[in-house]
Amino acid sequence: GVSTLEALAMNIPYSDKPICPILDARKKEVYAAIYRCGGNGLTCIMPDTAISPEALVNKIKEPTIFIGDGIKVYGGFVKEILKDAAVIAPSHLWPIRALNIGLLAWKRFKKGDADSPGNISLNYLRPSEAEIKKGASVK
Which residues of the chain, if any, have pLDDT below 50? Predict the structure, then answer.
């Protein structure tokens, strides 16, 4: 298994700035992470998280490239708060590429860090709406 956000950050493989992929998580949140490019690929600065856009921009301390469909909803807010420190990637770079998922998986496999297909599970960053409603009705 690989991170969707890491795969998205790989759309900008040679950046001298941190890369912050954001996906609209609804409920006034984004799924986000922050990565830095280096000789060995991407290094995670902030792990995948569900976070409010306000809290996310407070974590940005230097010019950062934003990428992903969360820009459609929150790009204006990010630019308004961060000004020139927010670099919005061109929209043709926002979709996740299957090639990047394959490259991340191959890199893990070569290190001997492979998942058994039966053991792969989704990494949800917050409970689904159904789980929230089910928990509320149990109380």
Answer: 138-139
CA-CA-CA-CA torsion for 10, 15, 18, 24, nearest 10 degrees?
A: -40
Rounded to 5°, angle at Cα 112 from 111 and 114: 115
Each residue of 81-103: b (16+ CB within 10 Å) or e?
ebeeebbebeeeebebeeebbeb
pLDDT tens-digit map of 31-49: 999 999 988 789 999 999 9
- Whole-model pTM over 0.90: no
Question: Are the beta carbons of 11 and 97 closer than 8 angstroms?
Answer: yes
Residue 113 to residue 7: CA distance in whole angstroms: 17
Residue among 57, 61, 59, 65 at smallest CA distance from 17: 65
Strands 19-26, 29-38: pairing kind = antiparallel
CA 4, 45, 104, 74 torsion-angle sign: positive
Percent of the chain past pLDDT 90, that is, above it, reads 66
Gap between the Cα atoms of 88 and 102, Å rounded: 25
